[in-house]
Structures are given as C-alpha cells and as structure tokens.
Amino acid sequence: MTTFEPLIRSFASKRILVVGDVMLDRFIWGSVSRISPEAPVPVVTVEKEEVYSGGAANVARNLIPFAREVHIAGQIGRDQDGEVLLGILGADGIDASGVLCSQRYETITKTRVVARKQQVVRFDRERITTINTDQVTQVRRFVLGRCPELEGLIISDYGKGFITQELIDAIIPIARSAGLVITVDPNPKNPLKWHGVTAVKPNRAEAFREAGVEDHSQSNSDPLQDEALLRVGEELLERWGTQIIQITLGEQGMIVFERGTKPHHIPTVAREVFDVSGAGDTAIALFTLALTAGASAVEAAEISNYASGVVVAKLGTATLTPQELIESINERRAREFAASI
Questions:
Q1: C-beta separation of 280 from 154 below 8 A
Q2: Residue 99 maps to which CATH number?
Q3: Contact 247, 205 (CB under 8 A)
Q4: Is 21 a catalytic residue?
Q5: Active-site residue, selected from the candidate residues 92, 95, 185, 281
Q6: Which residue range forms the structural domain that includes residue 145?
Q7: What's the pTM value of the predicted model, to 2 decimals?
Q8: Number of structural domains found in the chain
C-alpha cells in the first residue's frame, strides 16, 4: 500500500508565497444560559477571546507547520487590527514584508461569537478598496524579488479588492518564468482570467456560477455520473486555460479535472464536522505543497482532502501538523484494509 509519508516529509524544504486578501479572525467563546429580557436573543457569557490570521493569511498559517519558508503579500489598514495581524504573522514566522499598509484601507476583521460549539453571530468589519496601479507595482517588485527562491505561489481571492486583473497579469508571468507551481482559490464575485496558472480550486457553487450553469443536481448523486458537474469542470479547464481544476464538493469530497485524463472523484474523509471555518484555506495550502513536491494532481487532491478532514473536526480557524496529517491518512487506510479482508 502506497504511503504519502515521504512526500509529506519533503514539504519541509518548500518555500511558498501567498498573495491575497489578508484578514484578522477574532473568536469570542462563551456559554448561553438564558434569553435576554430586552429582546429574544441569547445572552452569551464571555469566557475567552482569541485572534488568528484569516483569509489569505490563514492559507499562509496552514503552510507554516509544513514548509521551510512562507511569504505573504496583501493589504492592511493603519489601525489596531492591522497591527495585531502583523504581530500574529511575525510570531508565526511568516515573512510579511509584502503586506502593504494603507491609510485609506481598513483591516478586514471577522468576529465570531461561539457558544457551546455553535456560532451565534458573526460581525464583519470591512471597507472593500481595490488596489491601485502604484500598489500593484509594489507587489510586483516584491514578487520579482522573492520568486527565484520559491517553489510555489498561491493566489487566495476573497473578493475584497486586493486581487485584480492588473495584479495577476503583473505577477503570473514572473512566477511562470521562475518555474513555480501557481494555484488559485478564486472568488465568483470577482471573475478574472487565470491563464497561465497550474491549478484553480473553486467549490461547486463557485464553479457553476463561473460557468454560467444552473445547478439542478441532487447533492447525493454520484459526481462521476453528474453530467452538469462534468460539463462545468471541462468547460472551466478550457475557459481558464489551466492544467488542473479541483472542485470541492462539501460532504461529497472533491473532484479533479486534468487535461488528458478522466475526472477523478475523491470522497470526503471527514468523520466529524465541528467547524468549516478555513477548511478551504487548508485545502489549497496542502494541495499546492503536494504539487511542488512532485505529487500528481490526484495525489495532491487526496492529501488536501485528508488535511481538510482533520481541520473541520476542530473548533475555530484551525490548522494541522504533519504528524496529524500522516496519522489521519494511516488510520483511514488501515480501516479500508480491514474492511477489505
């Protein structure tokens, strides 16, 4: 039985750059014992507060336990939340010298209130501001300086204004010239042309929306028999001009489309789901690392699927370690082997 352990161990030599919308994730944890007399809402007694890097910064955070170096480019405001986020990135060992700090920008912050493992409410603080040509030039200069030392580039688009056509047209040719694996986590509200990248990873809803196809399929249907899904995957391969399309399917796992091969479905391995916050960030991080280490598209997708299965069983914007990933894979394969005899 093939093992992924040597491949995962080899991630420790990889150097990755993440470019995208960085955010601050704040969690307020508490308990609920009564309903407010002022309005029909629960009263949350706060027990603790935690802050994490979010958005594209969470992609970078997921890389840290595995990779040799992690660099990030994004944008924050000259505000307290921005200072907190820079502090977190620095403490995690992430090179944040590519993060622009702008007076006209407000650091995006998502505050989640969680009681008894259930999210009660989320507050988003954001003012979407598209980066200008001067800022694109700054990012291009940063990417140009880092690319010769890297193996991979991840573009994480949350649709908050940092990722623009002007920006990707400026940095993708640089990354291609340097021979980098280039992966994209796109946002359907920000339709862009991704020609020249290695792989694009939309979820099912994003894929259908980008292809302009209505999704009438049953959620429990076999993805490999889902004609609409298969048509969307093939169409996006051509539309984006990419080598690989990885479509995540929630409880159905994911499906991989690659030029010259048949689509491959990978069922989910998640056994418990407590919190899906950041699971897509984990998936794109591990998928990219695996490709830089020489994994096939299907192998990379399988590894990212296992990684996502680990983090959704944790509360908060979670990450995982190489040992947790290896143990998850070994445990799953041991169960499959036992069931086959």
A1: no
A2: 3.40.1190.20
A3: no
A4: no
A5: 281
A6: 5-23+64-106+127-340
A7: 0.91
A8: 1
